[in-house]
Design brief:
The complex is a heterodimer. Chain A is α/β, with parallel strands linked by helices. Chain A has 14 helices and 23 strands. The chains are: A alpha/beta, B alpha+beta.
Chain lengths: 480, 102
């Protein structure tokens, strides 16, 4: 009987349930085959393997067995608890079995031939007792330290991976990164279906975790290095730019929170889900506009997350109160969330990851980043641009309105080349005339709407952000 | 004969041999062990055979990875020797039966 050609092309996947990883692997790890995860010490191999296993049991109804050669059940439970998993409870519910294989070379004498059949029996017994379909071996190469006969060991490892495949088990094998080869003991020779490399580097005292799919036989996959983050919500991998420009475009308009600005934007404000960019020099009013926007979003009953890379939340609250914006009630009602970080605390990728995680957890309809330019402290302009592209893509896909501020040293310059990504670009500038500083606002562009081409002068006062009184005395350019 | 040797004369050896079915390796290990015990431990040893194919849970419970594995349960401390026990000298050292200082 001829085979269905489609069945040959289709490689079934086992979803990892790890944010982002399933996207770049086009569905997860290869089902019924082993996947190798390698990386240096502390690169997150064990946590990634364990997340795959526990997500399988928790989200996909696939039970799992972990053979751990290095850490005890107690140590693992403590480590994984920080990612929100209750390992002892899952063991008690027979969702997973954890078998700690303890092997000390100096406690064992070797004489003559042997094989690792006992390990197979152990694994098979655990698998059969709960009907497991996922297996994690962490890290099997500890056998090389525990047993001295390498030729027996290599033969048995080959047999083990054949055995896993024959039983149709989806396995994850972790291994220490080697110098010349991918892994210290050349495990990639046995596990060749999918290989994932984890990396944890510190550059300029900033640490970044990255993940790369070295190999994925029979499947399309992303080939870049992807940043990933391990935090209290688990592991998240950040796919670089998403699939294309498929995001929908909303026709709904939302207020900028500033009446005269809404008027300049065809009388109705921004498009929902669009990307707004406010550039300007120091003290030109960027944060005030951002706070106004956040306030307006919350006043509509929508959630807004505000990333600040310059001020602390307390500073921002105090400063904004002075111009009549009180954000405190929105914080208390849970509509507004502040996320403050010093840019140098993490690497750029980790920032992106942390921002993603916050956005995912809060699911806001608006995101404010104030200012994006501070991120240049931790990356090059090119990196920041790439990162912004990712954030913007992601937010657009979700229909979230994004509001970025950007500090400019010289008016009109150094927009980091990101202005082309923006739907609306508002430029602020200050000008000293006589003995007074004046603030001007221009809508440089706003896609899809008729907008004002005038530069308007505005003032910050205890009633907020308002157009300067338009009389001959104070009009921009009139002088005094 | 030194003191250690004398003490050893009094003790009974409780030995466990873990195997997985009747494989040549396992049969060889049992034969090697029996011969060695008859020579060095006549009348004061017990050998218990555990076939992991019939008692798979014991592999995990007793931390067995390889077969054959010989475990000296008594006298304490517990000792482990893996392999078909073909090297008698090493088995004797492993069981603390070979007094290393003459």
């Amino acid at each position: 009987m001829p085979m269905d050609p489609l069945s040959l092309d289709y490689l079934p996947k086992s979803p990892t349930g790890i944010q982002g990883l399933d996207e770049i692997t086009d569905g997860g790890f290869p089902k019924g085959r082993p996947t190798l995860i390698c990386g240096g010490p502390g690169s997150g191999k064990t946590l990634l393997g364990l997340s795959f296993l526990l997500n399988g049991a928790r989200l996909f109804g696939e039970k799992g067995v972990l053979l751990t050669f290095e850490q005890s059940v107690r140590e693992l439970s403590q480590d994984i608890a920080s990612l929100g998993f209750d390992l002892p409870a899952m063991i008690a519910e027979n969702l997973v079995i954890v078998d700690h294989v303890h092997l000390e070379r100096n406690e064992v004498e070797e004489t003559g031939e042997y094989d690792l059949e006992a390990l197979f029996i152990r694994l098979a017994d655990a698998i059969d007792s709960i009907g497991a379909t996922r297996v994690v071996l962490d890290t099997i190469e500890a056998l090389f330290a525990g047993l001295s006969n390498e030729s027996i060991l290599r033969g048995e490892l080959r047999r083990l991976f054949r055995w896993l495949k024959a039983r149709g088990l989806t396995a994850v094998v972790t291994a220490e990164r080697g110098e010349a080869e991918l892994t210290r003991h050349g495990l990639e020779e046995y596990v060749s279906d999918a290989v994932i490399l984890l990396d944890h580097r510190v550059q300029d005292q900033i640490s970044t975790r990255r993940l790369r799919i070295v190999k994925y036989r029979g499947s399309s996959h992303g080939t870049n290095e992807y940043p990933f983050l391990i935090d209290q919500t688990g592991i998240s991998v950040l796919p670089v730019t998403s699939l294309g420009l498929q995001h929908g475009a909303s026709a709904e308009r939302i207020s900028s929170g500033v009446d005269f600005l809404d008027a300049m934007l065809g009388g109705r404000g921004f498009y929902r889900g669009s990307t707004v960019f406010v550039s300007g020099g120091a003290g030109s009013g960027k944060t005030s506009l951002a706070a106004k926007y956040a306030e307006a979003a919350c006043a509509r009953g929508e959630r807004c997350i505000y990333f600040m890379f310059e001020e602390s939340p307390q500073q921002l609250l105090r400063n904004m109160r002075s111009i009549g914006i009180d954000l405190q009630p929105w914080l208390e009602r849970g509509l507004l969330k502040f996320h403050a970080d010093r840019p140098s605390r993490f690497g750029l990728e980790s920032h992106l990851a942390a921002m993603y995680a916050s956005i995912r957890a809060f699911s806001p309809s608006s995101v404010v980043v104030d200012p994006v330019t501070n991120l240049i402290a931790v990356g090059t302009i090119l990196d920041v641009r790439a990162m912004l592209t990712r954030i913007i893509d992601d937010l657009k896909n979700q229909g979230v309105t994004a509001f970025f501020t950007s500090l400019e040293e010289v008016d009109g310059e150094s927009d980091m080349g990101v202005s082309s990504l923006m739907d609306t670009w508002i430029a602020l500038r200050t000008e000293t005339r006589g003995r007074e500083r004046h603030r001007g606002l221009t809508v440089i562009k706003s896609r899809g709407m008729a907008h004002s081409n005038r530069e308007e002068e505005f003032v910050l006062s205890d009633t907020g952000v308002n157009l300067a009184a338009r009389d001959a005395e104070t009009m921009l350019g009139a002088g005094r | 004969m030194n003191e250690t040797g004398l003490d050893r004369q009094e003790e009974t050896f409780l030995l466990r041999l873990y195997v997985a079915g009747q494989t040549p390796k396992c049969i060889r290990a049992f034969e090697n062990l029996k011969r060695l015990c008859d020579e060095h431990l006549a009348g004061r040893y017990q050998i218990e055979m555990i076939d992991l194919l019939h008692n798979p849970t014991l592999a995990r419970g007793d931390q067995i990875v390889a077969v054959p594995t010989l475990v000296r349960r008594l006298p304490e401390p517990m000792k482990r020797i893996i392999g078909d026990l073909s090297n008698t000298e090493r088995v004797l050292v492993g069981l603390d039966l070979r007094v290393t200082t003459p």
